[in-house]
Design goal:
With 180 residues, this protein is of the alpha/beta class. Helix content is 35%, strand content 19%. It is globular and about 50 Å long.
């Protein structure tokens, strides 16, 4: 469980971490419980968690400036040093090109990157969407229960989470169902 919890669904972890299980409160399960608690924060129907992050110009931006204003928002958690994350970026570009005029906003949140490297990567590759950098304390990743990247959290126009854990073709299909 400790080694594989990031590959399990919230429902499966609900069962495994039930209070009746003798190991559920063992101190070794603390990272698993923390991850599970984070998953609760990004379950469908849950209100998004507001955060303050830094944009490419060095300004502080709150997610509340972008979320809950009648648009669907994809929070794309990634890092420059992750091949899997970088492979997800073309999906974000395609989805923005296809659905921006229908009400889609993509907010890419870079986790634990060096600010100068991240800014250069975004600028040189002319990445689409809004790009924010998580503060060094890791609060945003913890608040959303992000343990592996890339990770996408889709938030509806009302500020409630529609889906999480959808990447690539699965994200494209979800957005296709929403916008087409």
């Amino acid at each position: 469980l400790w080694n594989n919890h990031t590959n399990m669904s919230a429902a499966r972890l609900d069962t495994l971490l039930a209070p009746g299980n003798s190991y559920a409160n063992h101190y070794c399960m603390q990272p698993v419980r923390q991850y599970h608690k984070g998953m609760d924060r990004r379950r469908a129907g849950t209100a998004y968690t507001d955060m303050t992050l830094t944009d490419t110009a060095g300004n502080s931006r709150r997610l509340s400036e972008l979320v809950g204003h009648g648009k669907y928002v994809v929070l794309n958690f990634w890092t420059v040093n992750s091949d899997a994350s970088r492979h997800e970026l073309p999906t974000m570009k395609r989805m923005l090109k296809k659905y921006a005029d229908k009400g889609l906003c993509v907010v890419s949140i870079s986790l634990k990157d060096i600010a100068d490297n991240w800014k250069k990567y975004v600028r040189v590759r002319k990445l689409a969407g809004i790009h924010l950098l998580e503060q060094e304390n890791g609060d945003c990743a913890r608040a959303y229960g992000i343990a592996a990247i890339p990770e996408n959290v889709v938030i509806g126009p009302d500020g409630r989470i529609v889906a999480s854990g959808v990447v690539g073709a699965e994200l494209e299909a979800l957005l296709g169902n929403i916008f087409e």
